[in-house]
Amino acid sequence: MVNYRYLGNSGLKISEITYGNWLTHGSQVENDVATACVRAALDAGITTFDTADVYANTVAEQVLGDALKGERRESLEIFTKVYWPTGPKGPNDTGLSRKHILESINGSLTRLGTDYVDLYQAHRYDVETPLEETMQAFADVVRQGKALYIGVSEWTADQIRAGAALAKELGFQLISSQPQYSMLWRVIEDEVVPASKEVGVSQIVWSPMAQGVLSGKYLPGQAAPAGSRATDQKGGAQTISRFMSDETLTAVQNLKPVADELGLSMAQLAVAWVLQNDNVAAALVGASRPEQVAENVKASGVTIPDELLKQIDEALDGVVERDPAKTLEGMPKKRLA
Ligand code: NDP
């Protein structure tokens, strides 16, 4: 089964392998497959589920809510997010204004079929709304009982520090940061992780498998396997393209002996690797088939010895991104509508 970790300095425990439905539910996969993936996650001991209002323009929340119907609410941790434009994408259907936060949470709860989410996350930093307004709105969402805790996603170290300080002042807890993190994308290590440790925030990391690339199934110079994300014209092919160079795919193949030595698949090695970082509370994995979930959960509880960690670094030499400034890369400079 899957081990649990505390989320930030809170008393909330989450499954260290968490299931997320970006690009899949309401988009790449049909609803029956989505439900089968959620069922496989529950069967494997995953109790924590992550979505966002923007995924498939709100449909992903609905699909997840339907798939979880009938489950005991207290035995689940359900996370969603607010920031990106949704619905008709009008001027107030986006960002972290008081208006958008207080309205968005209601839509998310309805679609998810629940009275509260365990974690409500700012999906990006909103440069156009005062942080005080945003944090006050989150404080009110918590006081209304609509979210138990608050988190952020892809915020810089300074933004996390400022947000945590305001949350404390307003009497609620900022407990998590949701950044991209994998063997190939380590930009949080130098700044975001130390700042988060200082203020009691932990990481829930997305794309731990670099969207499937670290599973080793994409081979340099060869066509991507049928049905894989790299062939998904609804968005997947574009988002995975960063990791699809021959240089990266060749380096990734060097990880096979390390996985073999540990008796793991390459996908399991990728998930286990992010969990070696003690500021990481969960690896947030996606799946297009239930068998992938069953395979990936076996990364829980694995320890990778130091000499193999070193071997991983050597295998990937030259293709790892470490620049902390990359956190700002996905950060809109102005609010989108
Ligand atoms: P992963 O890196 O885990 O990639 C998952 C994809 O890899 C699957 O959909 C599948 O794609 C492939 N895969 C999974 N397991 C295997 C396996 N065992 N063997 C081969 N291929 C496999 O994570 P995601 O990129 O899906 O992100 C996970 C979650 O993170 C999201 O659902 C979302 O909740 C969150 N997220 C958050 C963001 C944010 O801004 N906060 C941004 C992006 C994601 P396929 O079969 O189609 O090839």
Please characterize this protein's 3D structure.
The protein is of the alpha/beta class and 337 residues long. It has one domain (4-212, 267-303, 320-329): NADP-dependent oxidoreductase domain (TIM Barrel, Alpha-Beta Barrel), CATH 3.20.20. 36% of the residues lie in helices and 14% in strands. The chain contains twelve helices and ten strands. α5 links the parallel β7 and β8 (174-177). α2 packs parallel to α3, α3 (98-112) packs parallel to α4 (131-143) and α4 (131-143) crosses α5. The chain is globular and about 50 Å long. It starts with a strand and ends in a 22-residue tail after the last helix. 50% of the residues are buried. The structure holds NADPH dihydro-nicotinamide-adenine-dinucleotide phosphate. NADPH dihydro-nicotinamide-adenine-dinucleotide phosphate is lined by residues 20-22, 24, 50, 123, 153-154, 178, 206-212, 215, 217, 228-229, 267, 284-288, 292, 295-296.
The CATH class is identified as Alpha Beta
The total of helices stands at 12
Give the helix proportion (percent range).
25-40%
> Secondary-structure element sequence?
EEEHEHEHEHEHEHEHHHHEHH
Distance between the termini: 42 Å
The total tally of domains equals 1
Q: Report on the biggest sheet.
A: 8 strands, parallel, barrel
Which class best fits the helix and strand makeup?
Answer: alpha/beta
Number of strands: 10
Strand content: 5-15%
Lateral strand order in the biggest sheet: 3-4-5-6-7-8-9-10
Q: Spell out which ligands are present.
A: NADPH dihydro-nicotinamide-adenine-dinucleotide phosphate
Shape: globular
Average pLDDT value?
Answer: 96
Tell me the radius of gyration: 19 Å
CATH architecture descriptor text: Alpha-Beta Barrel
Q: What ranges have pLDDT less than 50 throughout 5 or more consecutive residues?
A: none
